[in-house]
């Protein structure tokens, strides 16, 4: 008994998945290398065409696609397409070991689900009716059902390419993958037609003379080229472990829909077999979602370091010239950490010159103001070995890394269990050193012989999250700097929940920075400390600590007495800031009846809006910048002509305007009406200004 067509198709589909899964890794490495020497693919560049590894990935993918191509000639799409899940397993495992994109337990469970679902689909796959000619396939393609599907697909792709990609392509993964998957569904039906034509030709029934064969070839080429282009953009812009499963889910779903409409794969099957196939497909899709979720959890766990002491924060400098070193550092951590007031920067550190000639690679680090400095030393001959940490001469007393042999299990540094494959290893070490340094500074401050300082420390250090730092400067007495957290749990408030749709991914915090002088003899009441509020940068779009009026520091007052007044004052200001968003939103909504619907508006913090205005044949934009103190402060208006441009081709704009009638007691409708009346006259002045500003013809 010969081997069935389904068995041949199954073997080819499995081989195809192995090749395609490996090709993702090779192409990803090639794109990374190409991006270092030119414009990234995600930015519209094509330097990857000069990268050998990218071509190796393309050749591997070509082998996989050829195997996949032949598989469609032997087996139905409902069998071949879901088996592409095996390529996800292959790419995820290789990404885990080669690209250091960690595959967590949930990801492993996702792989198992994909395998189980694939087995179910294989067992219940339908036996396909083999067409007798390409013309027969063409007759299936021009049926009303498939023509409707093809037209809808092309319209969606056109909308994604022309409208959505320029605006959201770099931030929304669904744009690129939507184009790939939609074109891919048309690719599969075309490839299947070509595969059947080749098979029939080899069996003695020549299909080359049919024009339909070449039409399917042209369609397949166009679709494949589009897929490759947008898949490259997706791979270069987003993480492989995210691209691969989402692409598979969308591609598989659309392909099965297209094949089912065109070839009627389930005709003649029992209900139980069809239900089993769908269960297998759902199991596979669930597995890919698990893989995606596992990667999201890993990325979401990249939290920033604990909050710093303003400029007394840790700034870590990572050497740019050490590829072996940087392989231990995930780029996502730098992105997250740069968003906090304790940013991490990549910076060529000169301290490596101190070890010139030694067989080591060096990463320098420095804590500004606080003074801690040193180096991470890596053994160049044994890159898997944990680094040594060498501190500067100013921190001889700082010894955070205890002897592993003498330390208990609870005292050992993370260097004791160093894993060079762990992308979080260096980050964990940085965090551990910083926490140790905070405790070291607290102990130093507690040893200072200053009665006032001892009292402050005894009453304030019990507060959760407080930081202390000793500050020394030439020509000035030593000082102690306190950083006291003023947001949760102090205020029992979650700022993100106060703003609907808030985009903040990291906790937003406010600290009070208080600087006390030490080593002084006081003959009278000690002076008040220098006080300053500091906040995370993202918080400024909602609430500016610079606008907060600090309560006065009374004679003889201590921090424990001062903080409750400040926290109550701050809480009221935060509540007012939240209410101000509602006021700004109502103002923007009031623009529509008079100016028409805003062209653009800030939907979350309601700080900006733009409307289109027309005066006769003169059209111009009005940009509203709405202050945080709205309605106490009025919006700032800027007019921009849509018809006049300067010598550089930039639209002519007016100077900011805020000298129009205004009262915070007016309701939003009256505010907008007064602005409109003001602009009726102002637009004529702006029109003359635009005409006078035009470049003079020589």
Automatic annotation (TrEMBL):
Q: Which Pfam families match?
A: BRE, Mg_trans_NIPA
- Keywords, comma-separated and alphabetical: Cell membrane, Endosome, Ion transport, Magnesium, Membrane, Transmembrane, Transmembrane helix, Transport
Q: Which residues form the signal peptide?
A: none
Give the subcellular location.
Answer: Cell membrane; Early endosome; Membrane
**Nucleotide-binding: present as a keyword of the record?**
no
Q: Which GO terms describe its cellular component?
A: BRISC complex; early endosome; plasma membrane
User: What molecular functions are annotated in GO for this chain?
Assistant: magnesium ion transmembrane transporter activity
The primary site where this protein sits is membrane
- Membrane-traversing stretches: 6-26, 53-74, 80-99, 106-126, 146-164, 176-198, 210-228, 240-263
InterPro entries for the chain: BRE (IPR010358), EmrE-like (IPR037185), Mg_trans_NIPA (IPR008521)
Assembly notes = Homodimer.
Q: What does this protein do?
A: Acts as a Mg(2+) transporter. Can also transport other divalent cations such as Fe(2+), Sr(2+), Ba(2+), Mn(2+) and Co(2+) but to a much less extent than Mg(2+).
Q: Which family does it belong to?
A: Belongs to the NIPA (TC 2.A.7) family.
This chain belongs to the protein called Probable magnesium transporter
Q: Which organism is it from?
A: Oryza brachyantha (malo sina)
């Amino acid at each position: 008994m010969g081997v069935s067509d389904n068995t041949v198709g199954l073997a080819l589909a499995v081989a195809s998945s192995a090749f395609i899964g490996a090709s993702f890794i090779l192409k990803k490495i090639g794109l990374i290398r190409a991006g270092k020497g030119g414009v990234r693919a995600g930015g519209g560049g094509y330097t990857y065409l000069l990268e050998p590894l990218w071509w190796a990935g393309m050749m591997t993918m070509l082998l996989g696609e050829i195997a996949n191509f032949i598989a469609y000639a032997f087996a139905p799409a409902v069998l071949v397409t879901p088996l592409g899940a095996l390529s996800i397993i292959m790419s995820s495992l290789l990404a885990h070991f080669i690209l250091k994109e960690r595959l967590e337990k949930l990801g492993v469970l996702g792989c198992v689900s994909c395998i189980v679902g694939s087995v179910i689909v294989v067992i219940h796959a339908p036996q396909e009716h083999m067409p007798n000619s390409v013309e027969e396939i063409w007759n299936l393609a021009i049926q009303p059902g498939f023509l409707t599907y093809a037209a809808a697909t092309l319209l969606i792709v056109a909308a994604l390419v022309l409208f959505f990609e320029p605006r959201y392509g770099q931030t929304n993964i669904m744009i690129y993958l939507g184009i790939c998957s939609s074109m891919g569904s048309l690719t599969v039906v075309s490839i299947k037609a070509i595969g059947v034509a080749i098979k029939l030709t080899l069996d003695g029934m020549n299909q080359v003379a049919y024009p339909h064969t070449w039409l399917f070839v042209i369609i397949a080429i166009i679709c494949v080229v589009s897929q490759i282009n947008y898949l490259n953009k997706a791979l270069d812009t987003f993480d492989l472990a995210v691209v691969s499963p989402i692409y598979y889910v969308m591609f598989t779903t659309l392909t099965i829909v297209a094949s089912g409409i065109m070839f009627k794969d389930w005709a003649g099957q029992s209900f139980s077999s069809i239900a089993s196939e769908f269960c297998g497909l759902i199991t596979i899709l669930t597995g890919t979602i698990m893989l995606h979720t596992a990667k999201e959890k890993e990325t979401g766990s990249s939290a920033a370091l604990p909050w710093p002491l303003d400029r007394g924060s840790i700034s870590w400098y990572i050497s740019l010239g050490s590829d072996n070193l940087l392989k231990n550092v995930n780029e996502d951590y730098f992105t997250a950490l740069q968003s906090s007031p304790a940013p991490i920067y990549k910076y060529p550190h000169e301290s490596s010159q101190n070890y010139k000639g030694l067989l080591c690679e060096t990463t320098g680090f420095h804590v500004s103001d606080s003074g801690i400095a040193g180096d991470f030393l890596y053994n160049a001959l044994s890159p898997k070995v944990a680094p040594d940490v060498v501190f500067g001469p100013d921190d001889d007393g700082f010894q955070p890394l205890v002897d592993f042999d003498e330390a208990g299990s609870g005292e050992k540094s993370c260097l004791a269990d160093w894993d060079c494959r762990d992308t979080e290893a260096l980050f964990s070490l940085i965090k551990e050193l910083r926490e140790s340094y905070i405790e070291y500074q607290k102990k130093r401050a507690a040893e200072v012989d200053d009665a006032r300082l001892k009292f402050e420390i005894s009453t304030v250090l019990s507060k959760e999250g407080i930081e202390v730092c000793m500050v020394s400067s030439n020509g000035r007495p030593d000082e102690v700097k306190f950083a006291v957290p003023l947001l949760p749990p102090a205020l029992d408030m979650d700022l993100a929940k106060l703003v609907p749709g808030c985009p903040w991914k990291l906790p937003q915090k406010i600290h009070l920075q208080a600087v006390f002088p030490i080593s002084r003899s006081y003959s009278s009441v000690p002076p008040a400390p220098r006080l300053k509020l500091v906040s995370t940068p993202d918080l400024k779009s909602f609430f500016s600590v610079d606008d907060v009026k600090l309560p006065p520091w009374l004679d003889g007052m201590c921090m424990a007495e001062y903080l409750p007044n400040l926290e109550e004052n701050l809480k009221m200001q935060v509540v007012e800031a939240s209410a101000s968003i509602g006021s700004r939103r109502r103002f923007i909504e009031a623009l529509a009846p008079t100016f028409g619907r805003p062209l653009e508006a800030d939907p979350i913090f309601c700080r900006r809006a733009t409307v289109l205005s027309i005066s006769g044949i003169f059209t111009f934009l009005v940009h509203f910048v709405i202050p945080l103190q709205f309605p106490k402060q009025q919006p700032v208006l800027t007019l921009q002509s849509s018809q006049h441009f300067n010598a550089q081709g930039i639209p002519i704009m007016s100077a900011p305007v805020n000298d129009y009638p205004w009262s915070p007691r007016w309701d939003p409708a009256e505010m907008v009406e007064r602005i409109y009346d003001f602009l009726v006259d102002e637009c004529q002045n702006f029109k003359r200004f635009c005409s006078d500003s035009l470049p003079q013809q020589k």
